[in-house]
Design goal:
Layout lengths: L1 H29 L2 H18 L1 H21 L8 H21 L4 H6 L1 H9 L5 H32 L7
Helix pairs in contact: 2-7, 3-4, 3-7, 4-7
């Protein structure tokens, strides 16, 4: 008898919690995604502006790596035997450095993890909204500028050309 009362109380508590979660889901669904994206992107851009060291570090690393690639693979030969291997090595190094350079985008996500969990549980915004804004604000404001700088420096110094001759 006591077990039945405990199990029924647990079911009631569980149902009440599920009801509250469903209510929060309805409240979240009632808001427009555009409004969520607008407010979360404002906050993310403010964070980026208040922390200019991240942007500056990205630019400095891109310039240094571009110069390193440029000096190591300076004026590649246009012959078949060593030229192709050197060009492939330069392209490989460029791709790897650009790929590994994006690892720094994980650091803000790790720092904001507690805030993210709190705000999604409190139904301030959806998970998709958070990640869309992080990708847009982080990629556009931080990664593209450094990638363009790296590519311009490395491309010009290595002598890569569009034509085959």
């Amino acid at each position: 008898m006591n077990i039945n009362i405990n199990s029924s109380l647990k079911k009631l508590i569980c149902n009440a919690r599920m009801g509250k979660l469903r209510q929060k889901e309805r409240e979240v669904a009632a808001r427009a995604s555009a409004a969520e994206i607008y407010y979360v992107s404002q906050r993310t851009l403010r964070y980026t502006i208040r922390n200019p060291v991240l942007f500056l570090a990205q630019v400095v690393v891109a310039i240094v790596l571009g110069l390193v690639v440029g000096f190591v693979f300076n004026s590649l030969e246009k012959s078949i035997d060593p030229g192709i291997q050197n060009r492939l090595g330069a392209i490989f190094f460029m791709v790897v450095s650009q790929t590994l350079g994006t690892i720094t985008s994980l650091e803000p996500l790790i720092k904001k993890r507690v805030s993210y969990i709190h705000k999604t549980i409190s139904a301030y915004y959806r998970t998709t909204t958070f990640f869309i804004v992080k990708v847009i604000c982080d990629v556009l404001s931080m990664r593209i500028v450094s990638s363009i700088l790296f590519s311009l420096i490395a491309y010009c110094m290595t002598g890569l050309e569009q034509s085959a001759g």
